[in-house]
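Q: What structure does this chain adopt?
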Amino acid sequence: MKRIVIVLLVLMLLPIGCITPQQTAETETPAPTDAPTAVPETPAPTATPEPTEEPEPQPPYVDARKPYTYIMTEERDLKWEEDIVYFANTFLDPYHGHPLLSDRMTPTLSYNDLVVRYGSSGTQNFFDPALKAEFIDRVNALILSIPELSDNEIMIKLIETVAILHDLHSGFGGTIYPFDACLPFFVQPFVSDEGTVCVIDETFSAQKSLLGMQLLNINGVPVEEILDRLRPLVSYENEAAFRSLAMSWSCIANADLLRYIGVIGESDYVSITVRDRNGTVNDYDIPVYKIDDFVLINGFVSYNSGTGTEESDVGRSLMYSNPAKDVWHCLLNDDKALYIRVNTCKVDDTITKAFDAAITAGKEAGSLEKIILDFRSNTGGYPDLSGNFLPLATFLSESGAEVFILIDGGSYSAAIALPSVLRRRVEGAKIVGSLGGQPTAFFVGGQFKLPNSGFTGQCSSVWDDFWPGNTDEALTPDVIVENTLEDFLNGCDSVLKYILQSN
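A:
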């Protein structure tokens, strides 16, 4: 409690008299003279003490090198405090922390030799002191608010803290966000005459009437505003990656995230506004599913045009037709085109058989005219494909066929690195599709695990450059082909259509 002491000063004025000289008969009485007036001394004022204020509370977390004193008393809160401090120390470690937050020389690797296994090493300082200060401020704010937040809200705050780094390789769960409930739809962005629209392409059979419709808003909040509110929660390096990640099922359909950004409440239902192919706008109430129930529900359905195009060589379902296989292939266009789909680059040496089979099929096809290597919606893995990069690159170079390398905003990490190197190594190769989800140089690093909650995250510690000298914000295709709403509604993959139906 602040107290103010007030001191009253009382000034006493002394009485002042006049001295009159004696009168005599021999002399005239002189004119009276005023006696000098005594000037009283003014006592020095008593100093008023400064108000006593309680010192401002010091933030509990200072830096990774500084000792930390835990302040939580409840068991649950203390465990989260320990996790948050572990998280902060990981990113601020002076030797292995994130390059933007740790004032050190960061190891770098530049792939000039087009082999992917070897590169020119160096060092560079990427430290940003203002970003570090903001990071620590957010850590302290989170620690102090632990008792007020749910477990999911704390995790979302950690995700939000990492997102200020704009590093796709740093965060929690890669492209998956923690959630306990979700809305029952998947959406995809497509280009239309009105610009980019958000279309429902998968849902439960109970809501199958929504398939193919444009999602306009959720609980009256327009989709574009929802994306803007989600932006601080997404770790992205360019706009292509942001839209891909924000429109992913675990983000825009994530009930916990939508509650956090104020789009929905605690109700078991939400209202969505959609527009059908005829331009008619309608509102629907749809349930919010608990994630434990969601995974048990059967009857998940995808949009189908009914034209039969989905099953054709240019069908939009082709790239999704073997999701359980890391790498697979097929022959298209009367065996004149070899299609190799790389679902993920997180492969081991057993994948050699899949690549060998694809290469063999291409060689046996005889008059092979086109080879399509599809890295779209590939979140990355190992750039050398567990030793299969060189055999693949050699086959592409010696095939005599036109080589097309496909990417989009969902292509990250090794799915950016490989197209970058193949584009320069294989003469005449073209990258086709939409802007990639990363530039050709980016931070990478290892994983960490929070000791109590068990959540696994990533913290970058080094810098890799797969196209030295390329300063574009995204790996940019030689030919940009966007998936259009018209092609989607007709069951067609716009990129495959461009490659297979054009000369």
